[in-house]
Amino acid sequence: MSIKKLAIAGAMAAMMGAAPAMAEMVFPSLSYRTGPYAPNGIPFADGYADYFTLLNERDGGIGGVAAKVLECETGYNTEKGVECYESTKGQGALVYQPLSTGITYQLIPKASADGIPVHSMGYGRTSAANGKVFEWVFNYPATYWDGASIAVNHIMDLEGGSLSGKKISLVFHNSAYGKEPIRTLEELGKKHGFTFTAIPVDHPGQEQKSQWLQIRRDRPDYVLMWGWGVMNSVAIQEAANIRFPMDRFIGIWWSGSENDVLPAGDGANGYKALALANPGGDYPIYADLKQHVYDTGKAAGDGSNAGTVLYNRGMYAALLAAEAAKKAQEIHSTAEITPAMMRDGMEALNIDAALMSSLGLPDFGPEFSVSCANHGGSGIGKVQQWDTSSKKWTVITDWISADRSVIDPLIAEDADAYAAENSITPRGC
Amino acid sequence: MLYREAGDFKTNYAADQQTFPIKSERWLFWAFMAFAFFVVPFFIDDYWNKAVLMPLLIYAMAALGLNILTGYCGQVSLGTGGFMAVGAYAAYKLMTSFPGMDMFSVVILSGAVTAGVGILFGLPSLRIKGFYLAVATLAAQFFLVWMFNKFAWFYNYSASGQITAPERSIFGIAVTGPSTAPWATYLFALSILFVFAWVARNLTRGRLGRSWMAIRDMDIAAEIIGVSPLKAKLSAFAISSFYVGMAGAMFFANYLGSIEVTEAFGIEKSFLVLFMVIIGGLGSILGSFLGAAFLVLLPVLLKNIMVGYLGWPTDLAAHFQIMMVGALIVIFLIAEPHGMAQLWRLAKEKLRLWPFPY
């Protein structure tokens, strides 16, 4: 019985592998439209796919070569992530967007050995910002440690410049993802004199009564959150239940989408989250998307996510990938690029205001440039606040910079440890 | 006709007591082994290795371990995920503390560490039975996962709590880390599984296995005829955990390369391995392999048919796949409650009588 199955699976795999990837740029999308992380995975995957559809329909691809999005369902599960990676890498995959810190950790050594770039946009391993050690991994425009520092800097602005004697708690997803900011926050706590407490929430995060009881007892001045999937909406609901002041509750950029705040209703009013880029659908690109994608029935998913925070982020990820591909075509003066050329393109990426305007997204994201040494971008973010009456996120600050004097040494330390562990000689640049 | 004993004479006890007493069955087994050892390595690629064969071999190892405990000794365990985690973390600590150690030693020592932990969590089985024991092993599952998250020593104080396998080799050929050849990791896992499946098969045919089965079938009667429940139950826990620990070590070091305990070794893993054992056949070595094959290969096959061949949307395919696997499990258990191993036994009976079955 198993032999027969093996044979059929073999035939299928052969069929999949045999499809030639000529004159196509393949962008795998390791998405998750099922499971406890689907509320956040779906809008991102839709945005990622729709942007490439737009490029194909409106511009005839990237530099004349059609883009193809290969979607593979991971369910946020590492084993399925491996299956997805192995099944798509043979089809000319140019860059991976794992959209899961766990899968990113898994892919960093493997993709580096296979020579395929990984773009973990605002997630993944923070120290991958060090391009000398992590040649194939990029996490621009900002990292988790930037995020932690941006949140603390925002709190410092609110408190008039001093945090000494304050209490800050972190509610985090008990996984690689949630644990990332702890080290930075401990360092920042030492520097600014606030007391830091980390409160773990186990996967999938539907049960958080005891955590919020602890917060109610500790009475922290601010609560930060590193959450994902259903954990976000449950946390916001619980915070509302214990009447925690919402404007003192700040989520990372992965805890700030419409799907996270809507279930809590009025209780979520005033909840803050960091933003990698602006929310909302008020950009010229949406007119093009409507004309070329939505109205022609080519939208991914059910098409209900346009203009949401995570849809925008998925689109932004696709935009950065497409721009890097254009850059790669320019550097190597060929239309059909390889993953290695794509990497060169990503490393030479330069996003400025004029470029973003020309792409139909003026003032949308930060200006940044990637270099051989810096794969982490500018590391700046904004703070957005949820308004229940209009059901909209409003950006309430300008770009806030992270405290480089704290983060850069931490990145160097962690990257060096990785290099030593895996006997990598850092590139000279 | 196709499968017969006629003319297959045994002239000594050794021949009569061998694992495969029927010639055609023996041939089939050795042909399959020759195929697995000498043909597959030449054709294996990364996809087959990482997505199909490695999970198959490793889950078969875990199912083999659980089958010893649950199938042969009758002690229900929901702690398989936790014990796999012990194996994985033991392998990580061994690999990072003793960089010169070869991978065979790492995997076997990780199994030994897990055996010790298994004995510890097996102690309650001397006093509590059945569902209550299942709950006690559930405590092991949650405690172990919590422990690996809580104490940073286990993950060498890394910032994210992830453990990543460094490159280690055997005879100069890398079997862990990112730059392994697919055939190397495959042959490594296959050899370990082959040897220890052989051991398990013979253990269950010997005195120890018979004492396990006596305890399983009726513990009081077994005690009266002189089987020590302490020895039988604890040895079952130890040997079962040894196998599960080796599976966990290979799961981490050779298959995934980088894991995070809550995600990789949660309660879902315990249930998955238990389902493999139940669907494959309780108290059957072959059943462990069939059960693992069913639950590892079927989802991959369904995904490749629905997404790769029919071009369905990925979310529809994922939901449909969950329903199909669930439905097949239910249908299977109704149609053949003794698992796939029993199906194979029946098929052999029919073949023996072919073309005149009754």
Task: Give a summary of the structure in a few sentences.
With 429 residues, chain A is α/β, with parallel strands linked by helices. Chain A has helices spanning 2-18, 38-59, 78-89, 101-114, 144-158, 176-179, 182-192, 209-218, 230-241, 258-261, 284-294, 309-332, 339-347, 353-358, 404-421; strands at residues 24-31, 66-73, 118-119, 137-138, 167-173, 195-201, 222-226, 249-251, 272-275, 350-351, 368-369, 380-387, 392-395, 400-401.
Ordered list of secondary-structure elements with their pairings:
The complex is a heterodimer of chains A (429) and B (358).
Chain A: H1 2-18, E1 24-31, H2 38-59, E2 66-73, H3 78-89, H4 101-114, E3 118-119, E4 137-138, H5 144-158, E5 167-173, H6 176-179, H7 182-192, E6 195-201, H8 209-218, E7 222-226, H9 230-241, E8 249-251, H10 258-261, E9 272-275, H11 284-294, H12 309-332, H13 339-347, E10 350-351, H14 353-358, E11 368-369, E12 380-387, E13 392-395, E14 400-401, H15 404-421
Helix pairs in contact in A: 2-11, 2-12, 3-4, 12-13
Chain B: H1 13-16, H2 23-43, H3 46-72, H4 80-97, H5 103-122, H6 131-150, E1 163-164, E2 169-170, E3 173-174, H7 182-205, H8 207-217, H9 219-224, H10 229-256, E4 258-259, H11 261-264, H12 267-280, H13 285-309, H14 314-335, H15 339-353
Antiparallel strand pairs in B: 1-4, 2-3
